[in-house]
């Protein structure tokens, strides 16, 4: 392997990508023109379009805006520009797709478009709630001409329609206005799914930026029509960046069943408060104090760089919902393109949603775990298996027999010794991406790097590496997981960082570290340590467009031998995702 970057952008190891030039949080009504850019032949190749991830046939998508299971149908409402492949001020509507299995989707007509004074400059993110009696409703942020952000209500025209094809905006919109002292009215958005508060009334939280702090403002209602602000926020912090897309849900330690927030929560449950901030989705674990009607984190961490993340890669604006069909909580998020805006216009589409994930709380009550929903395994075919492999320093074992561009790979790495673990520096937690750059796959270590090389060209000019390193702190072992894209493409335009995150593992009891990686052409999702760290990446290798074949390897570049007791891989068939004409 080589640490050197393969293009001009690949050397950056930054938390905040410089490209694409898309603003998550536009604060001024400057229109981004949806004009055609000069043709970019290589990016127009259909090989970069995913085969089993969620995306519309064409145009721009971003935040997941509402999820629900209703009358046997899964619904995904999402931010959508029906006119072009760019985020354009004033054009954002709500796309709508339905599914029976979370894998195959049918695109329906947009449910709302900007056509009222309270949303004339955009129908932005919101959430769906199933009320008592089974009535679905939607709350969403509307943007008025003067960039005043308000919360609007939406009802289905025909609740007996399981597809919920038509919706009606409430006559009293906006139902919540930015009349909070010190509130920046252009940073007041993204209402959560509703839950039942200690007084039996409905609660929601809305992300907000105030003069001296950011908060999830708390509102209550008896009928979901008239809302009153509670005199204190659900939670607040002096972060400089606004909290977007807050999510608030209950979890039981060590129990992967989901909890329905519209009914009473059992004793012993904890709560997770998630917010999208600074290009990442971060979260806190704590309790919902019923007396104070507030979220209280288990641990107060002032430096938000140390907050845990839902995903450590290209993943933002996630939304969760309770799946009443299978009694689980499911979360998924938006993954933006990592090429430039002219490329997006040329290929005619931009943005995908990640594979839906079951999410639950680890048995120690400290960390959320995630795993792709079981339904995605219905796409598996051509299974190959290897057992009893042994990887010494410098070894690479090629994985053949599957489509390396559309694959699901599960590997268990077993450590033969933990004595070679290098000392852990706690300062690395502040910037794991930087440490992944400094400790890449070519840098020999004690235990690791070991992992998976994917989308590799014949001469290794292009390759993406997902790997682990094991470190010893004073009382525990810390595992670094990296998804290194710095050599992922020889193309000049894609953003190619090294993503990374740490997780704890009790190696004295369990010597195995698991890795699951879903490869879907330009999308790569990896789950390390049973879902303790998840990393989503976007890659655009020339080998995918030009050659149509790539290599995949299990490898070890550490001093300690690593065994592979089990390696399984499958080719993934195409899903039917919003295929035009059904």
TrEMBL record:
Biological process according to GO: carbohydrate metabolic process
EC number, UniProt record: 3.2.1.153
Enzyme class of the recorded protein, top EC level: hydrolase
Glycosyl hydrolase family 32 N-terminal domain: residues covered: 53-372
Entry superkingdom: Eukaryota
Domain named Glycosyl hydrolase family 32 C-terminal: residues: 375-570
Reaction equation(s) it catalyzes: Hydrolysis of terminal, non-reducing (2->1)-linked beta-D-fructofuranose residues in fructans
Pfam families, per the entry: Glyco_hydro_32C, Glyco_hydro_32N
Protein name per the record: fructan beta-(2,1)-fructosidase
């Amino acid at each position: 392997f080589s640490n050197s970057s393969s293009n001009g952008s690949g050397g950056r190891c930054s938390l905040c990508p410089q490209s694409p030039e898309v603003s998550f949080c536009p604060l001024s009504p400057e229109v981004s023109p949806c004009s055609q850019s000069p043709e970019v032949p290589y990016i127009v190749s259909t090989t970069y379009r995913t085969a089993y991830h969620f995306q519309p046939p064409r145009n721009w998508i971003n935040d997941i805006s509402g999820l629900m299971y209703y009358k046997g149908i899964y619904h995904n409402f999402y931010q959508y520009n029906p006119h072009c492949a760019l985020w354009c001020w004033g054009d954002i509507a709500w796309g709508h797709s339905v599914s029976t299995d979370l894998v195959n989707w049918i695109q329906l007509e947009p449910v709302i478009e900007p056509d009222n004074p309270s949303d004339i400059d955009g129908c932005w993110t919101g959430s769906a709630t199933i009320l008592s009696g089974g009535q679905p409703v939607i709350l969403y942020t509307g943007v008025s001409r003067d960039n005043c952000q308000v919360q609007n209500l939406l009802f289905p025209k025909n609740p007996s329609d399981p597809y919920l094809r038509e919706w009606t905006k409430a006559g009293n919109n906006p139902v919540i206005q930015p009349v909070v002292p010190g509130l920046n009215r252009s940073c007041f958005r993204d209402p959560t799914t509703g839950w039942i508060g200690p007084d039996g009334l409905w609660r929601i939280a809305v992300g907000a930026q105030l003069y001296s702090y950011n908060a999830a403002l708390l509102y209550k209602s008896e009928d979901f029509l008239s809302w009153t602000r509670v005199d204190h926020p659900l939670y607040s912090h002096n972060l400089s960046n606004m909290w977007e897309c807050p999510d608030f849900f209950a979890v039981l330690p060590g129990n992967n069943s989901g909890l329905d927030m519209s009914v009473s929560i059992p004793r012993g449950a904890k709560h997770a408060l998630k917010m999208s901030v600074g290009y990442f989705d971060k979260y806190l674990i704590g309790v919902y104090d019923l007396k104070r009607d507030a979220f209280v984190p288990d641990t107060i961490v002032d430096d938000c760089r140390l907050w845990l993340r839902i995903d450590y890669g290209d993943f933002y604006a996630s939304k969760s919902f309770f799946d009443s069909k299978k009694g689980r909580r499911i979360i998924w998020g938006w993954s933006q393109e990592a090429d430039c805006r002219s490329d997006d216009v040329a290929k005619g589409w931009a943005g995908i949603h990640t594979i839906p994930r079951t999410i639950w709380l680890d048995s120690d009550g400290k960390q959320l775990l995630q795993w792709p929903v079981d339904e995605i395994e219905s796409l598996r075919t051509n299974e190959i298996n290897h057992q009893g492999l042994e990887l010494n320093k410098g070894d690479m074992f090629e994985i053949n027999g599957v489509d390396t561009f559309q694959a699901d790979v599960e590997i268990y790495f077993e450590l033969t010794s933990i004595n070679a673990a290098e000392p852990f520096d706690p300062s690395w937690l502040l910037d794991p991406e930087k440490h992944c750059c400094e400790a890449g796959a070519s840098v020999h270590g004690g235990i690791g790097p070991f992992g998976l090389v994917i989308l590799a060209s014949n001469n290794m000019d292009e390759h993406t590496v997902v790997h682990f390193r094991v470190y010893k702190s004073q009382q525990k072992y810390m595992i670094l997981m990296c998804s290194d894209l710095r050599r992922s493409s020889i193309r000049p335009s894609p953003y190619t960082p090294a993503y990374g995150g740490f997780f704890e593992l009790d190696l004295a009891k369990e010597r195995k570290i698991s890795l699951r990686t879903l490869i879907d052409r330009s999308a790569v999702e990896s789950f390390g340590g049973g879902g303790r760290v998840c990393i989503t990446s976007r890659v655009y290798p020339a080998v995918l467009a030009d050659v149509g074949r790539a290599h995949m390897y299990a490898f070890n570049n550490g001093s300690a031998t690593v065994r592979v007791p089990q390696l399984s891989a499958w080719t993934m068939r195409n899903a039917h995702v919003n295929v035009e004409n059904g």
